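tokens incoming
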């Protein structure tokens, strides 16, 4: 796709940073405001008539504007949308950090406190969007970024379902958005979805954070739908004996095959995860330079001063030294 080196006379493309079925994400530089942004270009299915392209463009505009109204610390802010050379694009906050999939690969299993800290932040995001009748539909490890200050960001609401009556959707009839590893049974069956569909995906993420393994896996991806629909998940404590019973019960409820058997809303998940959050830390340690990602920090030092990595502190002059 030739979109040119500069989009809308302000966004200079630097490099590709991600891709999927719905489009490509680029790191770009906003030359008007002097900051890096994430610019997502949307794929256009081949063979569409001009009327279909016009309708799709209108749907894209309406859903992008709806996504821009989402307001939460854990959501990447939408800055702009438009069209360049027939390609629709969306400009969002560029979030740096490590994605949850890589964090799990690095650690193999996350501590109970870390899994709770990440899970609570995801639940907070979901509670905020669900109350606005939005369902993410593609919650997975690659769409969860842990910043170096420990703040968790949920990305890519590009396939989100807007449940508000009268809101058009980007996806067409028969599409099944989402990633199979975290896909709820009702998505696989093409049944109606609601907020509890995202809670199933959160259960998949909690299970993988705590065990290092997906809920279901098979050498052939074609076998996964049958496992998700028909097989019970392995209880958490069978794989992680030190996991609390209450945490195991919560994960199993989130992974229920039927939405009615899952927790009713993300706020309930937040409440049940909260007991395993870390305790408040000594305020003095909030100023200690850090070297690694720390998802516990937002809870140990809520509203603490902006954290700085060791390399940043090393550049600062010490008292008595010339600046």
């Amino acid at each position: 796709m030739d979109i040119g080196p500069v989009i809308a006379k302000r966004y200079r493309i630097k490099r590709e940073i991600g891709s999927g079925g719905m489009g490509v994400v680029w790191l770009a530089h906003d030359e008007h405001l002097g900051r890096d942004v994430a610019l997502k270009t949307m794929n256009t299915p081949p063979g569409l008539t001009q009327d279909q392209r016009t309708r799709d463009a209108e749907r894209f505009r309406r859903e992008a504007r709806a996504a821009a109204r989402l307001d939460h610390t854990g959501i990447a802010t939408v800055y702009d949308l438009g069209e360049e050379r027939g390609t629709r694009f969306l400009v969002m906050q560029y979030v740096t950090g490590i994605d949850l999939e890589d964090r799990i690969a690095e650690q193999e299993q996350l501590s109970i406190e870390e899994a709770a800290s990440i899970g609570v932040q995801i639940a907070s995001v979901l509670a905020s969007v669900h109350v606005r009748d939005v369902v993410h539909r593609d919650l997975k490890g690659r769409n969860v970024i842990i910043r170096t200050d420990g703040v968790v960001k949920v990305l890519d609401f590009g396939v989100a379902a807007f449940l508000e009556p009268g809101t058009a959707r980007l996806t067409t009839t028969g599409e099944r958005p989402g990633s199979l590893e975290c896909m709820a049974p009702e998505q696989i069956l093409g049944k109606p979805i609601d907020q509890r569909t995202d809670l199933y995906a959160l259960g998949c993420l909690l299970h993988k954070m705590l065990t290092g393994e997906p809920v279901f896996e098979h050498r052939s991806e074609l076998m996964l739908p049958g496992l998700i629909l028909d097989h019970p998940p392995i209880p958490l404590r069978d794989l992680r004996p030190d996991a609390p019973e209450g945490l195991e019960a919560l994960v199993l409820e989130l992974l229920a095959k039927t939405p009615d058997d899952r927790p009713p809303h993300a706020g309930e998940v937040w409440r049940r995860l909260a007991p395993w959050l870390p305790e408040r830390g000594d305020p003095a340690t909030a100023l200690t330079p850090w070297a690694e990602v720390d998802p516990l920090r937002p809870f140990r030092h809520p509203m603490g001063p902006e954290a700085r990595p060791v390399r940043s502190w090393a550049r600062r002059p010490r008292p008595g030294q010339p600046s």
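note: The first strand starts at residue 6 and ends at 7.
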